[in-house]
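Example 9 (inverse folding). The structure is encoded as follows.
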């Protein structure tokens, strides 16, 4: 009996017929990042568990419930990355990047891992495009990061997206806010989930982000952070709103946005799809994260991440992915004498940067033609004994163009010029 092996629950295979959709999204991420001066950063799939406990926050759902953590053969606690920002900061600290040119701008396209219930557009292994900006406390930096995210979504054709923003203040103005939250939630303590009961004393703001329907209902009437902002945080938020307006970026102020990770300060934001209600991208400012990982370093930071699974799903629902155009050439060989000539023409095309295929299955001509059509070949060439002897061939344009009469020697350059 054959062993039945399937992909683990919460993971997703991307088949060859669909991989171009992901490439469209990833290519857009790289193009837009380059326009804003962001360069790619890469880091390991797994890190020391302490990095995420300190960086993401030990009162978050991510750390408390969702991390894939294990002991390696050296008895070290290792965690598959649940997000990208903590790793990005670790890279910058380890390699001294905060001592270089500022502001420091970087982006990443990564897989990440969280153990949570799989649902629409959310998997246990998921993929993110993220951008990071370090070295400035200016609200203009907040505007740029939001503009980058908006430009990325627009590049994908997702123009009808809602931007919601909020400020969750700094550690100073959050002292009074935490006191007000603690007093409010204490009056509902018996109804809170067990996790939130533990958060009540340690970090009551985390209760606002709880996924429990009961806790969500209680949190709906909780005090709002905007009523507790200090003068500096309020001025920062007002400048950001004015700058977004000047940039022509529409937004809504949503005082209930707090984001799910402990490192956020001041600006937080989300881009959501009105039709599905799904959050497609989100982020904010995290001015205390670097010093949390290295107390000697005082470096402001901010950024965002966008989930690729959700983006691909929404784009599919909206019909935004184009049909694959006909591309490349298929060279069919009729008989053993034609095989070397077909291989030589394919090699010449590839050397010119074009896709080219030949028969590897020893199929009939009819079967080769079917294969060429199914692979969406732009040009088809049939080479038989007559073509080998005369050196002349006919190139058929499958996109509807007129047949091209040419020679074996010139065919590659002619086809490459039309691809």
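The amino acid assigned to each position is listed next.
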């Amino acid at each position: 009996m054959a062993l039945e092996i399937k992909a683990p629950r919460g993971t997703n295979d991307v088949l060859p017929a669909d991989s171009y959709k992901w490439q469209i999204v990833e290519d857009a991420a790289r193009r837009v990042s380059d326009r804003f001066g962001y360069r790619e950063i890469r880091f390991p799939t797994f890190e020391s568990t302490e990095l995420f406990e300190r960086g993401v926050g030990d009162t978050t759902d991510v750390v408390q419930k969702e991390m894939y953590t294990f002991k390696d053969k050296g008895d070290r606690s290792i965690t598959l990355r649940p997000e990208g920002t903590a790793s990005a900061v670790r890279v910058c600290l380890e390699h001294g990047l905060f001592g270089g040119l500022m502001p420091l701008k970087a982006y990443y396209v990564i897989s990440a891992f969280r153990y949570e219930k799989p649902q629409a557009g959310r998997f246990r292994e998921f993929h993110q495009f993220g951008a990071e900006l370090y070295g400035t406390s200016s609200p203009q930096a907040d505007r740029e990061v939001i503009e980058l995210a908006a430009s990325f979504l627009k590049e994908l054709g997702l123009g009808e997206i809602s931007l919601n923003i909020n400020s969750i203040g700094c550690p100073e103005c959050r002292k009074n806010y935490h006191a007000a939250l603690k007093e409010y939630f204490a009056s509902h303590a018996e109804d809170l989930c067990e996790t939130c009961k533990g958060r009540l004393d340690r970090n009551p703001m985390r209760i606002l982000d709880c996924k429990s329907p009961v806790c969500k209902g209680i949190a709906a009437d909780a005090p709002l952070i905007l009523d507790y902002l200090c003068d500096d945080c309020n001025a920062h938020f007002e400048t950001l709103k004015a700058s977004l307006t000047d940039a022509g970026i529409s937004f809504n102020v949503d005082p209930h946005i707090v984001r799910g990770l402990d490192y956020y300060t001041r600006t937080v934001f989300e881009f959501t799809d009105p039709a599905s209600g799904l959050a497609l991208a989100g982020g904010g400012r995290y001015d205390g994260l670097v010093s949390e990982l290295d107390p000697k370093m005082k470096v402001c930071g901010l950024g965002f991440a966008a989930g690729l699974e959700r983006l691909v799903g929404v784009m599919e629902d909206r019909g935004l992915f184009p049909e694959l155009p006909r591309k490349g050439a298929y060279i069919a060989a009729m008989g053993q004498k034609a095989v070397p000539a077909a291989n030589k023409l394919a090699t010449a095309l590839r050397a010119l940067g074009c896709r080219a295929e030949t028969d590897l299955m020893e199929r009939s001509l009819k079967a080769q033609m079917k294969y060429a059509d199914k692979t969406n070949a732009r040009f088809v060439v049939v080479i038989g004994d007559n073509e080998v002897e005369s050196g002349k061939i006919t190139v058929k344009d499958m996109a509807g163009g007129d047949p091209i009469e040419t020679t074996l020697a010139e065919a590659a350059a002619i086809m490459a010029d039309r691809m």
